[in-house]
Amino acid sequence: MEVLDVLGDPVRRRIVEALSSGSLTSGAIAARFDISRPAISQHLGALLAAGVVTVRPEGTRRVYALNPDALDAAADWLEQQRVRWNRGLDALEQALDTGQI
């Protein structure tokens, strides 16, 4: 899942956290980090390509916002994995309790 791939980077996760409070310009995002603006632009590009963020021009600035649909898709996938693991662990617990293992 591409969304989870891009969220594997801690800088990108921090960008998503920053955007969770609302839209921000690229400059406002960059001001929160101790890395170069070009590096932030690359991270924003990766988030944009994965559909995690959207961007709109506002004069000479670019304003970024979260795309909740992409995050919902990642949350759904994670929930499916949680359910699968819980089923397996419940079956293991039952087998241990009944002496089948």
TrEMBL record:
Domain HTH arsR-type: 1-86
Pfam families in the cross-refs: HTH_20 (PF12840)
Keyword list, A-Z: DNA-binding, Transcription, Transcription regulation
PROSITE patterns referenced in this protein's UniProt entry, alphabetically: HTH_ARSR_2 (PS50987)
Alphabetized PANTHER family for the sequence: TRANSCRIPTIONAL REGULATOR, ARSR FAMILY (PTHR33154), TRANSCRIPTIONAL REPRESSOR SDPR (PTHR33154:SF33)
Protein name: Metalloregulator ArsR/SmtB family transcription factor
Organism from which the protein derives: Polymorphospora lycopeni
